[in-house]
Specification:
- The protein is built from four helices and no strands.
- By secondary structure, the chain is mainly alpha-helical.
- Helix 1 runs antiparallel to helix 2.
Length: 136
């Protein structure tokens, strides 16, 4: 059996992990879209998900090609078609580079708002102690 080869099992394990993570990310993003949420944050989540899922699936297909060898690049197996379809998915409705720009833009906006709202002096364990508040 092919699963007795450790190198093959590593490829399968990585693909399974990436696909499970992708499913979880899609579920979390879809759930966020179903409830009222900040539209900027939802835009970031959708962009992150699209980029992560397409790149993860491309890696999984790459692993499949590595396992089956050269025949994976022919039309004998569906791996070649899946590879082509995934390439289109990574550029359709915005390339993954555009998704990265959106993610970064929205993340900076969220971080800026969080920094402005945070009171760093209150982070200390004994921030309210009288002897801790010395302004000299």
């Amino acid at each position: 059996m092919i699963n007795r080869f450790q190198g093959v099992s590593f490829q399968v394990a990585e693909a399974a992990m990436l696909l499970d993570a992708s499913r979880a990310m899609v579920h979390a993003t879809a759930t966020a879209a179903d409830v009222p949420i900040d539209t900027d944050r939802l835009r970031r989540m959708v962009s992150e998900t699209k980029k992560f899922v397409t790149e993860s699936c491309q890696k999984a297909v790459h692993n499949a090609m590595q396992v089956v060898g050269g025949i994976g690049y022919t039309n004998v197996l569906p791996i070649e078609r899946i590879h082509r379809d995934l390439r289109l998915a990574s550029i359709w409705t915005g390339t993954n580079e555009v998704m990265s720009m959106i993610v970064a833009h929205e993340w900076y906006r969220e971080a800026r708002a969080a920094i402005q709202a945070r009171r760093y002096a209150e982070d200390a364990a004994e921030a309210g102690a009288a002897d801790e508040i010395i302004y000299e």
